[in-house]
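User:
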Amino acid sequence: MYVGRFAPTTSGPLHLGSLLAAVASYLDARSHDGQWLLRLDDIDEPRTSANAEKIALTTLEIHGLEWDGVVVRQSDHRDRYWDAIAELRKKELIFYCTCSRRKLRNTATYPGYCRTRLVKPSDPASIRVHVPDRKIGFEDRIQGSVEGNLSVGEGDFVVMRKEAIVAYPLAVIVDDDITGVTDVVRGADLLENTLTQIFLIETLDLAIPRYAHIPVLNQRNEIKLSKRDQAFAIDNRVPLLNLVSALHMLGLDPSSDHQDVHLLLIWAIEQWDVRNVPKEVAIKDFISI
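Assistant: Predicted structure:
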């Protein structure tokens, strides 16, 4: 059975880029008669906004994006993250790293300064995974063949930050495994990170989901729309306009006859074909709404 999901962070209200990812994953799940789950990525507490969860749920409901089952939260999975790190330790793949961001700011690939440090130091330390020198690849349903070598990309990557906050690549694969996600539809800004995730999935003997990466929305200055950069929140007063804009960017051509978000989504589900989604990794010329 197809199981998809939408996993926004709780660091702020949803913006148009968030809605685009939500609509794409929703349509793909419903067109396969599958489940569409909602997970709130709330593990990064310093960035969590008190009202963000309520606002996100309200925005999805107003736009007719109804999820299946209960809302899942990353913060409920902390023990499972540590279980995964324990498994990586058994495989002798992790080490402690005390390098500061300042020390690494001029290095694109982690240079291995702390690779031989197996014992936890007294100073605050992150946990990194020692990556192999080999190619990893997957077939993306939108972008096609994607491959890369982690050792010449980011290099040994962080799975647990110094603040004891799990890093995204590990959190997301554990979260998806817990909820049985079979298909991931999300922004193309995560294409490279997906290679890291697949390495972890294979290492931990988990099931690899199918991936489809849609174009991300860039601002006029070619910076991706994000909550961190204070992208404008979606205007919940015009959900039909928001949905129509998102559908156009996903390769659909809705008419102006629809007067209800639910009827518009029913139409979109019937018309959905992931092969019609633009293959660009970014869209920069759009009207902010």
